[in-house]
Design goal:
133 residues; mainly beta; twelve-stranded parallel sheet; 52% strand
Length: 133
């Protein structure tokens, strides 16, 4: 049996990719990606990495640059060298001093879905306590 999360997929420095990526494992980008990433794991954008597009993931660590739509269902961690532009939807946000965060941000409560309309990572809705009439 193979553990999909043991070794992250990588786009190395000096590599440029145009297209969409769908993965169940973690993904690290140290190069440039013009396209979308969808994973049920973690996305890491290294210091020299850049993504222009839409990213849907559970966790994200960003040291490099991102421009587009970012949907993180748990923790988004921005390092001091990060540059973020666009629209961001997260459950939890961590920002180091020095990071550039020029984005519209929508924070979801714990356990609430943070994915886009067609995301497969949405948690099922549960019925809350009954309300008195």
């Amino acid at each position: 049996m193979t553990d999909l999360g043991s070794q992250p997929n990588r786009i190395e420095k000096n590599t440029k990719i145009k297209g969409d990526i769908i993965s169940e494992a973690d993904f690290r980008i140290d190069g440039k990606l013009d396209g979308n990433v969808k994973t049920s794991g973690k996305v890491v954008i290294g210091k020299d990495g850049y993504i222009h597009g839409k990213v849907e993931c559970v966790n994200a660590d960003i040291e490099g640059s991102f421009n587009g739509e970012l949907f993180v269902s748990d923790l988004l961690s921005l390092k001091s060298s990060a540059v973020i532009e666009g629209n961001v939807s997260v459950a939890k946000l961590s920002v180091e001093p020095g990071a550039t965060f020029n984005a519209s941000c929508n924070m979801k409560g714990k356990g609430a879905p943070a994915m886009g309309n067609n995301g497969n990572f949405k948690k099922p809705m549960t019925n809350g306590p009954a309300k008195a009439s």
